[in-house]
Specification:
The structure is a single chain. The protein is an alpha/beta fold. It folds into 2 domains: about 240 residues, Spore Coat Polysaccharide Biosynthesis Protein SpsA, Chain A (Alpha-Beta Complex); about 70 residues. Helices cover about 50% and strands about 20% of the residues. The chain is built from 11 helices and 8 strands. An 8-stranded mixed sheet has the order 7-5-6-4-1-2-3-8, with helices on both faces. It is elongated and about 90 Å long. About 30% of the residues are buried.
Length: about 325
């Protein structure tokens, strides 16, 4: 029998883990008619009792393997840890807050059975505040214009990937990672499953505006050099207008000196404008240089504090 691995990044989800276990148990009952099922939960440095809850679930059900990270490394790194330890023929990534409806996983599996190697869940509706939905809408449209690859709009990490695809994805070891871009970059036969994103079962959203902004920057700078090209283009336009301004100033001085008005307002505004533009451009350059710096350091993507598993393959992977 083939195996399906579920990967759940967990961060401060104490209140919803029992419900998650209940829902996934129902799904696994259907899947286990044809497949072996395993669940890999990565505790990403939770500050509540999430790890204790995961321990209880593991003691109750040995299909649940727990990877406890030494601190909070972020969602992308937690997913990376799950990928490194997944042993299934197909791997399904899901949020642990139940906003990714578990029943949709069955639809992903059906598409995989049809021969698709990457099946991504694409949001049709989402029950989020208007501001969050608006930011998400514009983010995907801007990302589509700036990146060199076409990342499907309104998608997250919720998807199924074939083991063959995972082999290549695990070769991507960059520090500032953006999995939505990586999933698209590797190619293979991909398709979408439409779904309505549910409300959180319990707790508060962990993805703050700051984290969303960082993820957006990782997506743009990791898969596009357009910001760097824009610096050059903008510099050329500023130089062109400056040259025209010089010609205009000389012509006025030579042919209509009476039109010349003394004063420093225009000069001050021009200097401040160019100074602000230069700071923005330096910030863009600094972002790319910062990415180079973090890659050169070559630090571990994550650090494991402990593993709860009876599976020899998972324990072997840690070594």
């Amino acid at each position: 029998m083939k195996k399906i691995s579920f990967v759940f990044p967990v961060y401060n989800e104490e209140q919803g883990l029992d419900k998650l276990y209940s829902e996934m148990s129902k799904i696994s009952t259907e899947l286990e008619k044809k497949y072996i099922v395993e669940f890999i939960c990565i505790n990403d440095g939770s500050k509540d009792r999430s790890f204790e809850k995961l321990q209880e679930i593991h003691n109750r059900d040995k299909r649940f393997h727990i990877i406890n990270l030494s601190r909070n490394f972020g969602q992308q790194m937690a997913i990376t840890a799950g990928f490194d330890f997944a042993t299934g023929d197909a791997i399904i990534v899901m949020d642990s807050d139940l906003q990714d409806p578990p029943e949709v996983a069955l639809q992903l599996v059906r598409k995989w059975e049809e021969g698709f190697e990457v099946v991504y869940a694409q949001r049709r509706k989402r029950k989020d505040p208007f501001i969050k939905k608006s930011i998400s809408f514009f983010f995907y449209r801007i990302l589509d214009r700036l990146t060199d690859i076409k990342i499907p709009k309104d998608t997250g990490e919720f998807r199924l990937i074939d083991k063959k695809v995972l082999t290549y994805i695990n070769r991507f070891r960059e520090k500032n990672r953006f999995f939505r871009g990586i999933f698209t970059y590797v190619g293979f036969k991909q398709t979408a499953v439409l779904f309505d994103k549910a409300e959180r079962f319990a707790g508060k959203a962990k993805f703050t505006f700051g984290k969303s902004l960082k993820l957006a920057m990782d997506g743009i700078t990791g898969f596009s050099t357009v910001p760097l090209k824009l610096i050059t283009q903008f510099g050329l336009w500023v130089s062109l207008f400056s040259f025209l301004g010089i010609i205009y100033a000389i012509a006025i001085r030579l042919f209509h000196p009476e039109w010349t008005v003394s004063g420093t307002t225009f000069i001050v505004i021009s200097v401040l404008f160019i100074g602000g533009v230069q700071m923005i451009m330096l910030g863009i350059l600094g972002t790319y240089i910062g990415r180079i710096y973090s890659e050169v350091q070559n630090r571990p993507l994550y650090i494991i504090s402990s593993i709860l598993s009876d599976k020899e393959e998972i324990i072997k992977n840690e070594k």
